[in-house]
Amino acid sequence: MEMPAVWRPPRLAWPLLGVLALLLVWKLQPQKLEGHWQLATPILIGLGVLALRYLWEQPPAVAMCGAIALSIFSGAWGQMGLGNLPINRLLALLAVLQCLLRAPGTVGMPRLQLRNVHLLMALTLLYAIGSAAAAGTLGGEKGFLGLWDTLGVMPYLLFLIAPAVFHGRRERELLLITLLGLGTYLGVTAIFEILGPHALVFPRYIVTSDAITPGVLRAGGPFQSAVAEGCATYVCAVAAAIAFGLWRGQRRRWVAAAAGLASLAGCFLTLERGVWAAALLASVVVALGTRTGRRLLVPALVAGALILGGALAASSTLSSSTGERADDQRSVWDRETQIGAGLRMVGEKPLLGFGWNRYATDSGEYFRQPFDYPMSGYLPGTLIGTPEVPQPLHNTYLAYAVELGLLGALLWLASLLWAVGEGVFARGPTEMRPWKLGLAAVAIFVLTVILVNPHEPPFAFMILMAWAGIALAGRQSNGGAVVSG
User: What is the pTM of this model?
Assistant: First the structure.
């Protein structure tokens, strides 16, 4: 089939983009044009425009891998001194625009295909946007970013473009390398964060964030969230297992094995019981689904237990922290109390819910004092100077039912399960089998961990939906509509 010609922006478009960016900085953050920033900001904007121009000529996989890797810093760009510039979101949007506008890097890339699952996703988004508009939360930063990152506009767009973007082995190899590098960084940083030396933790805001909650020893990494860190490190461990099975050459397989071990170390050092349970469940289920996995499952579990036991014996700090987390009852009380409040809210407004991002403001009156344990789960532990911001509901399924109603929650869940199920079970080339098994592991992990945790930073759903699209690469069209530039 003849492909449409590629599109390059006019030469003047890039300088105009730089001028527009400078005007936005002057309007939104004028302090970035004062003092030493008066010269530095225009230079940085110019370099950014040059980088965008370069990326426009590259395959969309480059921008998409960059977006996935940099999403670990989402929400922390200001802490890194970059003025809340959402670099990860810009790269993800760039990848989408490259596909829709037929950038030069899309030569030889299959056209995007619209299928029925995409229509369901669009309906889900329209419903959620309507809910946010009715609840008055659409204009709020948290409400808007939740719709964009997590529910979400960007995960659904990545699911749409991923089968075309990662249609070739070279592009999938780039993603594996990205995830292996990411897993190594997260794992090593988690080790330094928990066991030291803290001077080697980068960026430094991670150590600063840990110091705010003294006595709570959990690896949150650049996410500043142990659960998000656990999701990312487990995904990277799955990618390492795929690379170990696909790559040839002893040196490359050793690199994959080292990255996998670092990722698993980071996953454990989150000291989150939900993360541990989800990782074990996902790994065992997927292993039982393959002949090789069934043969290696018991030896792998024994080896893992021995390594873990040795690490606990070698580090009294790690052993003490692990024991404290295993015996912690406060988080259990939090979840039980929250679930009770959430169920009362669903009973109050079952069909349409309270509105997107309304749990924090509307849930207070639905908490009740239990008879057999202290009431907790509404406000975090009291810290000097910490505002009384209600905790998020630690059950994503129930949170969506509370805010979007049972109708919205079922739309969201149906979209997610349809996308994942199609990626795992749809027929495709034999070379995609490892990716389908990896998708199954990532999906089981995410679907399990969100049972006891709230909406998390964008990485988990972003990589899950992108992976579901990747698993469809090479699949023959089923008559769906074609999107072209």
Answer: 0.90
